[in-house]
Amino acid sequence: MSFSRLRVIFPIGLFVALFLDGSLSNVFAGHLFSYPYASVLHLTLLWLVFAVFLDDHDALPVGIWATFVGLVFDWYYTGVFGVYMVGLPLIVYLCRQIKPWLDLNFLTLLMIYIINLTILEAFTYIWYTMGHVISSSLADFAVYTLGPTIAVNLAIFVILYYPMRRLYLSVI
Fold first, then answer.
1. CA 66/CA 130 separation, integer angstroms
2. What's the pLDDT band for 2 if we cut at 50, 70, 90?
């Protein structure tokens, strides 16, 4: 495998996204977490989804990085081990499975990202419910967490799509 600048840029961007997930959530906590609503930023997930779909040669070990960054995310942000360490590689695996079947464009990637957000948030909800970390109903989760999370991340996707796409395609 030949050396690619993407192999260097990808992990740096992944950890910047991980840092920004927490930092921006902290800075905008008053807007993102206004009772009863909670909007969870998923820049790390966005970076991983872009990596899977824009790496034409599947040369990046995205699944391994997703596991590692999920462990760091669990350790540093949630304190509940396994949620993101399992959830993020699961999303990478699902994306890799459907990638050959899709024609990559803005709307396709947008829908994939929304589906991945829903899967990851549902996975987190189920994990936390089974672990008795939360006790909200499915309806409350859908209205007060999933809906706002999708809305905020949808706006972030629209803003970052072209710069991130350009970055990925320029370093390949």
1. 23
2. very low
Q: Which two tokens stand for residue 118?
A: 């829903």
Q: Are 4 and 170 in contact (CB under 8 A)?
A: no
Alpha-carbon distance of 33 to 159, in angstroms, equals 21
74, 84 contact by CB (below 8 A) = yes
Among all chains, which residue has been given the structure tokens 């672990």?
131
Q: Which domain holds residue 162?
A: 6-171
**Global confidence as pTM:** 0.92
Is 122 part of a structural domain of the chain? yes
Assigned domain for 1 exists: no
Is there a domain that residue 95 lies in?
Answer: yes
pLDDT tens, position by position, 51-107? 999 887 777 899 999 999 999 999 988 888 889 999 999 999 999 999 999 998 999
8 A C-beta contact, residue 43 and residue 164: no
Residue 7 — very low, low, confident or very high, per pLDDT cuts 50/70/90? Answer: confident
Kindly state the DSSP code that residue 24 receives in the 8-state scheme. Answer: H
The answer to whether 88 and 66 have CB atoms below 8 angstroms apart is yes
The two tokens of residue 117 are 């957000």
Plot region of 141 (φ>0 → left; ψ -120 to 50 → alpha; else → beta): alpha
Predicted confidence at residue 59, as pLDDT, reads 77
What's the number of domains the chain is made of?
1
